[in-house]
Design brief:
2 domains; 6 helices; signal
C-alpha cells in the first residue's frame, strides 16, 4: 500500500526550497555590488574630494553652481555610474577654476 504525503507534510520541504533560493539570490545581489563600493574608485573618492574642496573655495557666484555639480556627482557614485560622476566633478573643478591633479587623472583614465 503506497502512502501519499498530505500537502501539510510537503509544506516544510517546499518552504526550505523557497527560503534557500531567496538566500542564494540575496548573496548574488550582494556579491555584484558596484565596483566603486568594493575598490574605492578614484573618481568617486579622490576626484570627488578635489571637487568638493574646490567648490568650497570658489567665489560666491560660482560656489552654488559648483556645489550642485558635486552633489549630482555624489548621487551618480551612489548609483554606480562613476564615468558620469567624474564628468560632474570635473565640471565643478572647471567652474571653480581649479585644475585636476595630474597624477590622479592618469589613474582615472585606466
Amino acid at each position: 500500500m503506497a502512502y501519499q504525503l498530505s500537502s501539510f507534510r510537503r509544506f516544510p520541504s517546499a518552504f526550505a526550497i523557497v527560503a534557500g533560493s531567496a538566500l542564494a539570490f540575496g548573496g548574488l545581489i550582494a556579491s555584484t555590488s558596484p565596483a566603486y563600493a568594493q575598490s574605492g574608485d578614484y573618481r568617486c573618492t579622490g576626484l570627488a574630494e578635489q571637487a568638493s574642496t574646490a567648490a568650497e573655495g570658489a567665489n560666491a557666484g560660482q560656489k552654488a553652481s559648483a556645489k550642485r555639480f558635486v552633489s549630482t556627482g555624489k548621487k551618480l557614485c551612489e548609483a554606480g555610474n562613476e564615468r558620469a560622476a567624474a564628468k560632474q566633478f570635473r565640471a565643478a573643478l572647471k567652474i571653480a577654476g581649479v585644475a585636476e591633479l595630474e597624477g590622479d587623472s592618469q589613474v582615472a583614465s585606466r
